[in-house]
Amino acid sequence: MRYLAATDGSTVGDDAVRYAAENALAFDATLVIVHVLTPESELVDGTLVMPGEEAALEDGERVLTGAEAVAEETGAEGDAIDVETELLTGRPADAITKFATETDADAIFVGHRGLSAEREAVVGSVAKSVVDKANIPVTITR
Predict the structure, then answer these.
(1) Which domain range does residue 47 map to?
(2) From CA 128, how far away is CA 79, in angstroms rounded?
(3) Mean pLDDT across the stretch 61-71?
(4) Is the pLDDT of residue 120 over 50?
(5) Distance of CA 93 to the CA centre of its chain
(6) CB of 71 closer than 8 Å to CB of 33
(7) Residues facing residue 30 across a β-bridge
(8) Which residue, 26, 36, 47, 98, shows the most beta carbons closer than 10 Å to its own?
(9) Does residue 5 sit within a domain?
(10) What gap in Å lies between CA 66 and CA 50, rounded to an integer?
(11) Among candidates 19, 11, 64, which has minimal Cα distance to 37?
C-alpha cells in the first residue's frame, strides 16, 4: 500500500503527515510525502518578478525534511516507517491528484487549511479541490 500525504510546511500540514504516518504504520504502507512548489510572484517597482528557482527548491526541500522528521517521530520506539518524499510543481490540487494516480497511491491525506488560509477565500480550498479531483479516498485533517 502507498499513502500520500501533502504538506505545505504548516502546523496543519504536519498534522496531516502525522495522521498519515499513523495509518501507514498500522497498515504497513509506504508513506509518500509531497510538497507542491508554486510560482510566487511579486510586484517590484511596477515589474512582475518571480523568486529564484534555487530558493524555491531549498524551501521545498526544507518543508519535506521537516515533514519527514514528523513522520519518523510517529509510533512507538522501534516502529519503522517507510517514507519517501517528492517535490511537485503546478497547481497544488492538480499536482497532488495527478501524482497520486501516476504512483498508484491508495489514499491521500491533506490538512484542512495550511499557509494559504487568506488566499482560500478568493481561490478556494486546496483540500476541497483534492477531494473533487481525486479518484481514491481522501482524508482531510483538522
Answers:
(1) 10-141
(2) 32
(3) 95
(4) no
(5) 10
(6) yes
(7) 2
(8) 36
(9) no
(10) 25
(11) 64
How many domains are there within the chain? 1
Assigned domain for 32 exists: yes
Q: Which parts of 51-91 fold into alpha helices (H)?
A: 53-72
Chain position carrying cell 480550498? 125
Long-range contacts of 125-131 (CB under 8 A, 24+ apart): 126/6, 126/92, 126/93, 126/96, 129/92, 129/93, 130/6, 130/92, 130/93, 130/96, 130/97
- Can you read off the three cell numbers belonging to residue 9? 510546511
Per-residue pLDDT tens digits for 125-137: 899 999 999 999 9
Cell of 123: 481561490
CATH number of the domain that 20 lies in?
3.40.50.620
The pTM score is 0.85
Give the end-to-end CA distance of the chain in Å, rounded to a whole number.
Answer: 24
Q: Record the cell numbers describing residue 97, joined without a space.
A: 491528484
